[in-house]
Design a protein that fits this description.
InterPro entries: Ntn_hydrolases_N, Proteasome_alpha, Proteasome_alpha-type, Proteasome_asu_N, Proteasome_sua/b. It comes from Phlebiopsis gigantea (strain 11061_1 CR5-6) (White-rot fungus). This protein has about 260 residues and is an alpha+beta fold. The protein has eight helices and ten strands. The protein has a single domain, classed as Aminohydrolase, N-terminal nucleophile (Ntn) domain (Glutamine Phosphoribosylpyrophosphate, subunit 1, domain 1), CATH 3.60.20.10. It is about 35% helix and about 25% strand. It has a five-stranded antiparallel beta sheet with strand order 8-1-2-9-10. α5 runs antiparallel to α6. The radius of gyration is 19 Å and the shape is globular.
């Protein structure tokens, strides 16, 4: 009888593969796109939001505040924001864990947690779920956008296996291959935050499954420094996203409405 090497997380196949990890990554490849670009003076994150139905009550999202009330971009600490692709319930669990760990570090050392330390600790947790019997891997990938005074702005990506890596610009979720090729063509080493915002919006408009680009299907955030050189995270509200799209001539809905009229 053929053995079911994918029936347990901890069983290797004869080729040395862990199928449950590969299945988790496959789930992420069907999730909404999340895009991150590192600029010399900040970081930009954008995420495709899956709208499940017209009757969904989005009133709280529209009035949401600083911490973000969406499902794709979260504030982990005052110096770190994260974009998630995959199973949202798994992401919520990891986000809560990361917030708790960041606050314990702040309490113990009286300084914000270094970005890589937070990513590494979350990856240790995720790796543990690939090693113990009776547990399944987290079906979510994260992009960490953060700042610390030693290494300035940093962008990291982690996957269900517990691997993480640093990037200048990257994409996770659906259509990530197309987005990566566009980023390779247009990304510049000395890009400024305003140029990065335009680049992210252009790439999202070409890679999102939706034919229209609007605040109901897009989440957006930036991490910059304020006047006192402290990290300032901004998670955009729907009205601000619509204004940003209009500024970059990507508000397709408005254009379509004008053509019809």
């Amino acid at each position: 009888m053929a053995r079911r090497y994918d029936s347990r997380t901890t069983i290797f196949s004869p080729e040395g593969r862990l199928y449950q990890i590969e299945y988790a990554m496959e789930a992420i490849s069907h999730a909404g796109t999340v895009l991150g670009v590192l600029a010399k003076d900040g970081i930009v994150l954008a995420a495709e939001k899956k709208v499940t139905g017209k009757l969904l009550d989005l009133s709280e999202t529209k009035s949401g505040g600083y911490g973000g009330s969406g499902e794709k971009i979260f504030l982990l600490n005052s110096n770190v924001i994260a974009g998630v692709a995959g199973i949202t319930a798994d992401a919520n669990s990891l986000v809560n864990y990361a917030r708790d760990y960041a606050q314990r570090h702040l309490y113990q050392y009286n300084e914000d947690i270094p970005v890589e330390m937070l990513a590494q600790n979350l990856c240790n947790l995720k790796q543990g779920y690939t090693q113990h019997g009776g547990l399944r891997p987290f079906g979510v990938s994260l992009l960490y956008a953060g700042y610390d005074p030693h290494y300035n702005f940093q962008l990291y990506h982690s996957d269900p296996s517990g691997n993480y890596s640093g990037w200048k610009a990257t994409c996770i979720g659906a259509n990530s291959g197309t987005a990566q090729s566009l980023l390779k063509q247009e990304y510049k080493e000395d890009i400024a935050i305003e140029e990065a915002i335009g680049l992210v919006l252009r790439v999202m408009s070409k890679t999102m499954d939706s034919t229209t680009l609007g605040s109901e299907k897009l989440e957006f955030a930036t991490l910059t420094l304020d006047a006192e050189q402290r990290p300032k995270a901004k998670i955009y509200r729907p009205a601000e996203i619509d204004a940003l799209l209009k500024k970059h001539d990507l508000a397709k809905k408005d254009e379509d409405a004008e053509m019809k009229s």
